[in-house]
């Protein structure tokens, strides 16, 4: 049976992958994104409904929810990647990361969860950086960790309503966001070369595709995951399973 699925950040990256997967499964999709041009192109290509909204604007999120009559699942995929330590992160960067990566999820849920029926589902895109951080991502890592706590709290709060809430935690994924970072920190190397190098840090030897993360999102939002709530599922190619310890035989 066709459902209506709302996807924030639906015009690019993991959000777009989720949109494509739900459309392929026969669902109706409402995609929210602040990039009006990308959203228009997505709507034309996949016959989805697009609503231009910046998830960092809680009033705009509330207004967007009023435009949607039925919601069976909500996927919160909008996010930004910003760099800095706790010392050198500016107030404006901190505020942006919190407004989009944390507030964008909190207030999207505040707007859309009341519309979910019994059997409805929320899937939040967090990150492996909720568990462990690379250098200079203090605000980003903090925000992703906050999302896991929010998911657990919501899972408990809304279980009596029959609404499930889960998170996916990807490692490196081949998205425009990742490629922007690769271009910034590539030191003159090609973006493809940097992305491939980052992929080799994962035991599976590569970065993920948005579609691979979208498959897990689709599962968590489906009746097949009817007894799964409050979970955070790593989709990281084994990245967080290993320790960066070099044994003597590895040096031979």
UniProtKB/TrEMBL annotation:
InterPro entries: NAD(P)-bd_dom_sf (IPR036291), Sc_DH/Rdtase_CS (IPR020904), SDR_DHRS6-like (IPR051122), SDR_fam (IPR002347). Keywords: Oxidoreductase. It comes from the Bacteria. One of its GO terms (molecular function) is oxidoreductase activity. This is NAD(P)-dependent dehydrogenase (Short-subunit alcohol dehydrogenase family). It comes from Kribbella steppae. It holds the Pfam family adh_short_C2. Belongs to the short-chain dehydrogenases/reductases (SDR) family.
């Amino acid at each position: 049976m066709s459902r209506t699925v709302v996807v924030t950040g639906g015009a690019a990256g993991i959000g777009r992958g989720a949109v494509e997967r739900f459309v392929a499964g026969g669902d109706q999709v409402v995609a929210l994104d602040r990039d009006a041009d990308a959203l228009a192109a997505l709507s034309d290509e996949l016959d989805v409904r697009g609503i231009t909204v910046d998830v960092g604007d809680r009033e705009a999120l509330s207004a967007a929810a009023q435009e949607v009559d039925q919601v069976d699942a909500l996927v919160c995929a909008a996010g930004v990647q910003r760099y800095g330590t706790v010392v050198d992160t500016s107030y404006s960067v901190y505020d942006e990361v919190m407004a989009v990566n944390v507030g964008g999820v909190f207030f999207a849920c505040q707007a859309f969860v009341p519309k979910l029926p019994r059997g409805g589902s929320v899937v939040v895109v967090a990150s492996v950086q909720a568990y462990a951080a690379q250098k200079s991502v203090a605000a980003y890592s903090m925000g992703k960790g906050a999302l896991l706590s929010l998911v657990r709290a919501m899972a408990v709060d809304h279980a009596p309503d029959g609404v499930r809430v889960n998170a996916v935690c990807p490692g490196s994924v081949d998205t425009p966001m990742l490629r922007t970072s690769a271009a910034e920190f590539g030191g003159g190397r090609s973006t493809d070369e940097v992305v491939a190098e980052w992929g080799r840090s994962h035991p599976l030897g590569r970065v993920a595709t948005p579609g691979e993360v979208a498959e897990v999102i689709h599962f968590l939002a489906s009746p097949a995951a009817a007894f799964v709530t409050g979970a955070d599922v790593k989709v990281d190619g084994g990245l967080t399973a290993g320790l960066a310890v070099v044994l003597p035989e590895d040096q031979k």
